[in-house]
């Protein structure tokens, strides 16, 4: 289907806006996936807060210009699906990696974070990043540990005094 110039400009603007606010990007080859599989992938993307778009490579190259994902330009060859993490840096990588486990036809080409291009073999690195809630939980645990230890130390002092008094009482009774 031929796109009119206005349609192309709209697509470029939409992808550029999404890329400007994204935290990370994953480029994958979707060749061989059925329509129902693509629909399922799109559904998962919506649920996980990932911007997912099949874009012509020339339009994608234009759209990523001026964003931190400009480094992806050379990987935009062949059938390409673009996944952008909007809220959680690892969301797109986790979603694509999980979906690729069940569908071997979905192949990761590259990913980018902070303007740095990574190869497809680095997807585990990004997918294993904790979500925001997990990171906040870990931070709370780290902040809580010294306070808990201090409280235990303070609780231990009266216990030691009670044990000393009991030992002195036992010694005098003997």
Automatic annotation (TrEMBL):
It holds the Pfam family Ribosomal_L10. SUPFAM superfamilies: Ribosomal protein L10-like. Keywords: Ribonucleoprotein, Ribosomal protein, RNA-binding, rRNA-binding. GO terms for cellular component: large ribosomal subunit. The keyword Protein transport does not apply. GO terms for biological process: translation. It comes from the Bacteria. GO terms for molecular function: large ribosomal subunit rRNA binding; structural constituent of ribosome. Part of the ribosomal stalk of the 50S ribosomal subunit. The N-terminus interacts with L11 and the large rRNA to form the base of the stalk. The C-terminus forms an elongated spine to which L12 dimers bind in a sequential fashion forming a multimeric L10(L12)X complex. HAMAP family: Ribosomal_uL10. Belongs to the universal ribosomal protein uL10 family. Forms part of the ribosomal stalk, playing a central role in the interaction of the ribosome with GTP-bound translation factors. This is Large ribosomal subunit protein uL10.
């Amino acid at each position: 289907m031929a796109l009119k110039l206005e349609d192309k400009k709209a697509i470029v603007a939409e992808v550029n806006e999404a890329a400007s606010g994204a935290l990370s990007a994953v480029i994958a080859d979707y060749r061989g996936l059925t329509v129902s599989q693509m629909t399922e992938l799109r559904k998962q993307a919506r649920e996980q807060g990932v911007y997912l778009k099949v874009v012509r490579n020339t339009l994608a190259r234009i759209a990523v210009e001026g964003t931190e994902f400009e480094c992806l330009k050379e990987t935009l060859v062949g059938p390409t699906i673009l996944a952008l993490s909007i809220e959680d840096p690892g969301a797109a990588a986790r979603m694509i990696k999980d979906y690729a486990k069940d569908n071997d036809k979905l192949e990761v080409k590259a990913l980018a974070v902070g303007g740095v291009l990574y190869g497809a073999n680095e997807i585990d690195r990004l997918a294993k990043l904790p979500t925001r809630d997990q990171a906040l939980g870990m931070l709370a645990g780290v902040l809580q540990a010294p306070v808990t230890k201090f409280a235990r130390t303070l609780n231990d002092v009266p216990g030691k005094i009670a044990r000393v008094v009991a030992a002195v009482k036992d010694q005098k009774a003997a």
